[in-house]
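Please fill in the sequence for the structure shown.

STRUCTURE ENCODING:
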């Protein structure tokens, strides 16, 4: 299984969810699977992450905002927000993925899809999330 490919696809699904909040989650997943020819293990991961982010969105967003001073979600670039939601979901709800892996993969996604400031911003927020979880 390519966890990297699955994570990339899950990020894109989370990003799509931001713009189609009322859209059927199964439709997003089916479109993803059709476009990417995902293996069963990849589909399982993507399904778990997308549904988990949607179910826990309020809590995940509260975690993000708690690590930022005087910010609102509207101020965060949508790509960065999708990456943060994915990473925080993995860190908080997926014990089989080491926190450092989630952090590193989030930074890699930021390098690939974000702007010049995304990498540092995401790295900083995720570092604070991990630090608080360890306390």
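FILLED IN BY: designer on duty
SEQUENCE:
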């Amino acid at each position: 299984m390519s966890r990297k490919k699955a994570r990339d696809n899950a990020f894109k699904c989370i990003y799509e969810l931001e713009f189609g909040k009322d859209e059927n989650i199964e439709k997003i997943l089916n479109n993803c699977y059709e476009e990417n020819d995902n293996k069963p293990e990849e589909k399982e991961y993507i399904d778990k992450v997308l549904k988990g982010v949607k179910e826990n969105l309020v809590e995940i967003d509260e975690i993000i905002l708690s690590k930022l001073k005087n910010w609102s979600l509207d101020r965060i670039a949508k790509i960065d927000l999708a990456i943060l939601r994915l990473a925080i979901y993995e860190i908080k709800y997926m014990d089989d993925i080491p926190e450092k892996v989630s952090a590193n993969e989030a930074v890699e996604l930021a390098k690939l899809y974000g702007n010049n400031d995304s990498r540092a911003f995401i790295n900083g927020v995720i570092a604070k999330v991990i630090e608080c979880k360890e306390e």
